Amino acid sequence: MLDNRLTHRSSLYINGRWCAPENGLVLTDVINAADGSVLGHVPSGGVSDIEAAVQAARAAFESWSNLPPSVRADYLMKIQDGVVGRAVALAEIIAQEVGMPLKMASAIQVGLPVTNLGGFVRAIDEVEWEYELGNSSICREAAGVVAAITPWNYPLHQLVGKVGGALAAGCTVVAKPADIAPLSAFILADAIEEAGLPAGVFNLVSGPGRVIGDALSGHADVDLISFTGSTAVGSRIAKTAANNITRVALELGGKSASILLDDADLEKAVKTSVNNCFLNSGQTCSAWTRLVVPRSRQEVVIELAITAAKKLTLGHPMDEGTRLGPLACASQMASVLKMIKAAEGSERLVYGGSAAVAEVPEGGFYVHPTIFADVDNKSPIAQDEVFGPVLVIIPYDSVDEAVAIANDSAYGLAGAVWGADQERAVAVAKRIRTGQVDVNGGRFNPAAPFGGYKKSGYGREFGALGIEEFTELKAIQQ
Ligand code: NAD
Question: 304 and 356: one domain?
Fold first, then answer.
């Protein structure tokens, strides 16, 4: 049973204290993706709360940024302890807010942010804070007040990527989580409060995206906006920020390709690619949603993909046997079903589809995993980000064509290459225009920079480069 105090929040965290929104308390329900019931609520802040939070962050900046990096690392370790202490509740809450099965939510939605907080602690020592260049001293300094605006699909992970990097760099933060899955941000604020961070270093304001987001991105006292979310909102933020020449880092959508070369271990490659695509019910920006395969192997790949997809039992995220949960909200379910239905009119559906049924709880936002094959890369289902459990299999006739297909996308976030000849596979990976590529299932590296090319955005998160993102460079000549 979840503690109501964790799920029913009515205060914002500004200047080191929990306070009611200035213009009166309006609460926004947080919906349980599994059955549509109310899981909790958060307060809806407004422009005056943003004003208070930005001023608090501004006032706290000088002393925070002047602390030795090792002291900031100590605070990050304390925050990590606080998150670890709340891990069980965090996993239960995120599993139901977002819909990811509990065991996975525990490992990915909570375990990963814990690892990444530790990663920032280690990376603080890897940053070259000051070095000599001829008669210049080059100093890396904190960028200032950071606005961290995050989406709902990996709510704690995305927030930690920004807050961890920004605090490590010496920045102060105003965080704004997505309304669909905001509760973990409040629990992170609890951990930050417990860690004893000076007042104003971290502030949390929830509320409607447009109002709060516009107020943050248009604020002259915000030095850097770090945004993860849709390409449309990212573009709007960049335009608004341009008025004050405010720096922006954008982590946006994706439509990543997993390329199977002709000598790939098909069984391993297909199984891993299918699991990657359907992770978090496809609500993963870096998901390999296009499986690019040699034409002569397509039918084998289809069979292997169906076998792998059948293992992903759809159901309540809190049930032991569930491998695939619901989508996060009703509008996401409607949008995904609309895209599946549109593709059914023209594409070869080989698994699932809009009419496929499964035994799932009533009222939840479930979509059956779906696979289309023989897809032309120019078709909408191969070009548009679905953000749901949909895989498209695209055949190719030459390696050059496979690379061209992978790169023929507005996005450039991630991808994979599979082949028995490692050197050849790496050579193909180097031709893919994305920020990350995994070769033959290369292990996830939390110290590696994460971010995109093209409409997937700009800027990098995590590890030492994810700290440097939140810095400015100064040259002092003598
Ligand atoms: P979204 O763009 O609708 O919302 C993201 C955040 O922006 C939310 O907090 C929202 O309230 C806020 N927002 C809304 N309007 C705003 C405005 N005008 N100004 C400022 N902020 C505003 O995205 P979403 O639906 O929450 O998330 C899904 C999208 O995020 C997908 O496109 C997905 O690919 C992308 N995503 C990208 C990454 C990445 O690292 N590249 C990671 C996860 C998700």
Answer: yes
Q: 250 near 453, Cβ under 8 Å?
A: no
Would residue 130 show up in a list of annotated catalytic residues for this protein? Answer: no
Q: Can you give the pLDDT at residue 396?
A: 98
* Segment 245-262, tens digit of pLDDT: 999 999 999 999 999 999
Let me know if residue 451 belongs to a domain: no
1 or 119: which leads in pLDDT: 119
| Domain enclosing residue 435, as ranges | 257-445
If pLDDT is split at 50, 70 and 90, which confidence band does 275 have?
A: very high
What pTM was computed for the model? 0.96
Q: Are residues 405 and 462 in the same domain?
A: no
CATH number at residue 227: 3.40.605.10
Q: Do 241 and 293 share a structural domain?
A: no
Give, for ligand 1, the residue of 108, 116, 149, 386 to mutate: max count of ligand atoms closer than 8 Å to Cβ. Answer: 149
* Mean pLDDT calculated for residue range 296-314: 98
- Which residues contact ligand 1 via a Cβ below 6 A? 149-153, 158, 176, 178-179, 209-210, 213-214, 217, 228-230, 233, 236-237, 251-254, 285, 385, 387, 413, 452, 456
**Residue among 171, 277, 285, 329 flagged as catalytic:** 285
User: Does residue 389 sit in the same domain as residue 358?
Assistant: yes
- 126: annotated active-site residue: no
| CA angle (101 as vertex; 6, 119 as ends), nearest 5 | 70
- What per-residue confidence (pLDDT) applies to 1? 79
CATH number of the structural domain spanning residue 327: 3.40.309.10
